[in-house]
Write a structure and sequence with these properties.
The chain is 33% helix and 8% strand. The chain is of the alpha/beta class. The strands form two sheets. Strands 1-2-3 form a three-stranded parallel beta sheet, covered by helices on one side. Strands 4-5 form a two-stranded parallel ribbon. The chain starts with 21 loop residues before the first helix and ends in a 19-residue tail after the last strand. The model has no long low-confidence stretch (mean pLDDT 94).
């Protein structure tokens, strides 16, 4: 309908296959915001570049997003393993220059394959030892260490022109449940969140992070009804 705002620019869907499907090319030409790539979309770095070139040819303003954290979470190098260390190693070494350099090397790999947005860094404070989804993806359990390294990672990524994403707001570290398969509960007050979970997000935003990813979990002391992904609060 003419005059009705379209939801298309807000969406980054995934898709099946290693080539750009016709239906997705059509939607990109209609104004779709972009795509999210997963490991199944990538068989080599050269093929990934051909795919992202096709996305940008269909819509020069489209964003190609991907989860490339280093360590255990990689899409570009899923078949062989990431050549870059993960956050747990970087946090343990506590060398900000190394974290910044690692992020820049990840970003250059993304630039060479035509990716615009990296869903990294993970800045969750890994305060729960039984956390099934953060673990080695986190820099550590100290919010100020996580804040330092999260900011350095943002700087390293964005210095090469790749948008960084601070995740998973407002903090997925204090739970033993996986939000991919359940609705975890983080039973902390807003004051408690400000003292721990939110500290790294403040630092990442101050460092210029272009994106913040929400987490699908419930914080009953902040909003007892809606998970963070859908909570206006």
């Amino acid at each position: 309908m003419t005059g009705v705002p379209s939801v298309l620019p807000t969406l980054l869907p995934g898709f099946v296959g290693q080539e750009l499907p016709g239906w997705l090319r059509d939607r990109l030409q209609d104004g779709l915001g972009g795509v999210c790539l997963f490991a199944a979309n990538i068989v080599s770095l050269g093929q990934a570049r051909t795919l992202t070139d096709a996305v940008h040819a269909a819509n020069p303003y489209a964003l190609v997003a991907v989860d490339e954290e280093g360590g255990d979470v990689t899409r570009l190098f899923a078949a062989t393993g990431s050549p870059q260390p993960g956050n747990a190693v970087l946090g343990r070494l506590d060398d900000l220059d190394l974290t910044r350099q690692t992020a820049a090397e990840i970003a250059w790999a993304l630039r060479r394959t035509g990716c615009d947005v990296d869903f990294a860094p993970d800045v969750d404070v890994n305060s729960c030892a039984d956390n099934p989804v953060i673990g080695t993806r986190g820099f550590g359990a100290d919010p100020f260490l996580v804040a330092r390294h999260g900011a350095a990672f943002v700087e390293g990524l964005q210095a090469t022109g790749v948008a960084a994403t601070a995740k998973h707001f407002p903090g997925h570290g204090d739970t033993s449940q996986d939000s991919h398969v359940s609705l975890p509960v983080v039973d902390r007050s807003l004051d408690e969140l400000r003292q721990r979970e939110l500290v790294p997000f403040v630092a990442a935003v101050a460092a210029g992070a272009r994106v913040v990813m929400t987490s699908h979990l419930l914080l009953p002391q902040v909003d007892p009804t809606n998970p963070a992904t859908m909570s206006r609060t």
